[in-house]
Amino acid sequence: MIKLSEAEWKVMSLLWQESPQTMMQLTNHFKETTGWTKHTVMTFLRRMEEKKAVHHEDGGRAKLYYPDICQEEAVMQETEEFLEKVFGGRMGLMLNTMVEKKALSREEIAELHEILRKAEEEQ
What are the φ/ψ torsions at residue 36 (nearest 5 degrees)? Predict the structure, then answer.
């Protein structure tokens, strides 16, 4: 199980979209969106390599960074952890909370209906 910080999720999201990336490509991207410096990005990449979330290969003049975990696996792990921590693992309680707070749009409700219909058919 790999625990990613919020900042590491940003790096992983970019690597999942397009990899490999050099440290400078990552730095240039995040300089615009977060203000992170080269040193900050280097620190994140080093930590993420230690966690085995990413790895690098030598690419001539620059290291090329690749994700080592798939997005679907990371999302599922994060979702299960959140659900357990906040709602005691109960999806129904989370959805009920969303309904009570009127946090779901008509489109999201329709999407949930379709998801539940498909789940029911598969059982």
Answer: -65, 140
